Amino acid sequence: MQFIDLKQQYLKYQSEIDSRMNKVMEHGRYIMGPEIGDVEAALAEFAGAKHCITVSSGTTSLEIALRALSIGPGDEVISVPFTWISSAEVIKLVGATPVFVDIDSQTFNLDVQQVESAITSHTKAILPVCLFGQMPDFDQLNAIADRHGIPVIEDAAQSFGATQRGKRSCSVSTLGSTSFFPAKPLGCYGDGGALFTGDDQMAQTLRAIRSHGGTQRHHHTLVGTNGRFDTLQAAVILAKLPHFQHEVQRRGEIGERYSDLLRDDCSVPEVAEGNTHVYAQYTIRVPNRDKVVESLKEAEIPTAVYYPKCLHEQPVFSDLEYEWGRFPESERASREVLSLPMHPFLTDDMQDRVVSAVRSSLR
User: Which residue, 84, 303, 310, 334, is most buried by CB atoms nearer than 10 A?
Assistant: First the structure.
């Protein structure tokens, strides 16, 4: 059994993927070829955003977003300690300071009720992470941000395709950022990412930073970087995108079925009111996680832990001087979470096998 079955996905869409990639090989424009404009237009339409700017990775997209907002030394950016490191490392990369706020125990997302008390005169952005595939309450987050005149950057690396009150992830805040890492709900065959905005000037700034600080060759108006998306990877996304909504629907159905079957045995992910969930990872909470993992391994059920340590436990963030116990919900989640096989091609029989093994491991 595969944890994420990318091979089966490729075989299902092989003719479309091969055809798209072959066209790139034929025209030979491997950097900023015509597929870049095509995929940006298609992704913007899908997300319901005015502009999409593709970039070289989800991490690069967050860094470019911070640079476009002129965030740097002396500034603070609010985020969470229970996430992949890129959400906070980019804050340090631009010279700013991460300020962590604990998560909500039900959704694993930023506890919106704690955000306002973390805002200071140095706060220049809020960077909530849509962990595992659903969004925090952006109506509340945006209202808080508006009161303080600060932007919100949605880290939607795991939630692209999800909705909140009818609006799609990446269209609900100042900037939306996502990742096309192969394991993401919409993945390419390498690194890749995208930024979304409704602001024309911001879109121009993002495009300039992505390509060495300029939108015209040999004319550089900003300090930029090489953050361009690869044309071959754009071709892969163009081939997969027509199938994506169906895959999102299947993820929701599979996630709901997992929860119905496991709810009496362990803590299952809860979907917040008004949300849909794309289950980038289907994540339960269990006591004695190591024992459960070993039992599932013996049953040949693959698992993963996202994430076994909080960011304030990482040596690179020791200068923030957050002590253990400061973020109890994040800390507890990091010791209990366990992700089960999840992909759109998981059959009922496969799920039943996983569920049976989980139940046995908890006895």
Answer: 310
- Nearest Cα neighbor of 313 from 334, 293, 288, 329 is 334
Q: Which fold has domain 244-361?
A: Aspartate Aminotransferase, domain 1 (3.90.1150)
Nearest CA-CA partner of 305 in 293, 294, 295: 293
User: Taking the model in full, what pTM does it have?
Assistant: 0.96
Q: What is the pLDDT of residues 32-73, one digit of tens each?
A: 999 999 999 999 999 999 999 999 999 999 999 999 999 999
Q: What is the CATH number of domain 6-238?
A: 3.40.640.10
Beta carbons of 126 and 75 less than 8 angstroms apart: no
167 φψ region: left (φ > 0), alpha (ψ -120 to 50), beta (else) = beta
In the predicted model, is pLDDT for residue 216 greater than 90? no
Instruction: Compute the distance between CA of residue 320 and CA of residue 274 in angstroms, rounded to an integer.
Output: 35
Our CA dihedral for 142, 146, 149, 153, rounded to 10 degrees, sits at: 10
pLDDT tops 90 at residue 78: yes
Please compute the mean of the pLDDT values over residues 184-198 and round it to a whole number: 98
Please state the domain extents for the chain: 6-238, 244-361
Condensed to tens digits (0 to 9), the pLDDT of residues 328-339 reads: 999 999 999 999
